Structure formats: structure tokens, C-alpha cells
TrEMBL record:
Keywords: GTPase activation, Membrane, Transmembrane, Transmembrane helix. The lineage of its organism: Eukaryota, Metazoa, Chordata, Craniata, Vertebrata. This is BAR domain-containing protein. PROSITE patterns: BAR. GO terms for cellular component: cytosol. The chain crosses the membrane at residues 107-129. The keyword Transmembrane helix applies.
Amino acid sequence: VLDWDSARARWNQAHKTSATNFQGLPSKIDSLKEEMDEAGNKVEQCKDQLAADMYNFISKEGDYARHFVSLLEAQADYHRKALAVLEKVLPEIQAHQGKVTPCSASCFACAISALFLLLLLLLSLPVHFAPFPH
């Protein structure tokens, strides 16, 4: 479209200049007119291609909608399963959290091995209770 506008503006300018200047360059005006017509043809081709692409997209809208619905169903199923796993393991996690560990009073008073054991336990809980098959 910009090429067509630019070619049309150049043709109009040359046409106005040749009207006031009787020595005008008819060949230049003709070449600008031809350039403008070619750009106009390209614009029409682009419009036709856009219409064909839009028709193609609209004709497949049902397929796109079905894929979108299946995606939403899969997401809902995943979240239902994740909720079920969380509801199952949450009491266990709360029970582990309530237990007194050797470091519960002050970690600085514990042996390093007890700290590593506690760290290992805390790191393994999410992996142990993950909603994925082991």
C-alpha cells in the first residue's frame, strides 16, 4: 500500500509539473503511471491473498475450537489430579511439620549431621509427594 501511495504521489507530482511546464517528459509520466499501476496490482493481489487466508482460517475455526476445548479439558484434568494429590499428602506434610526435630529449638546448637538430615528431609518431601508417577 505504501508503494502504491508513493507511486501515486510521484505520478501526481509529475503530472502537475508537466501541466505547468509544456516541455514535460511524457515518457517519465508514462513510466510513473506504469509503476503506479503495478503497485496497484500488487495491492489487489495482497487483498485477494488476505481474503483467501481469512476464508481458510474461518473454514477451520471448528477444528481450532475443538483443539482449544481439548486443551482446557486436559488442563482441568491435570489440576483435578494435582488437587487430589495435595489433599492426600497435605495431612502427612502437616504431621511432619509438627514433629519435633533435634534442631527445632535452635539450629546453631545442633550437630552438622542433624542439619544435613533435616535439609535432606525438607528437600525430599516435594519430590516424594510429587503428583507424577515414580
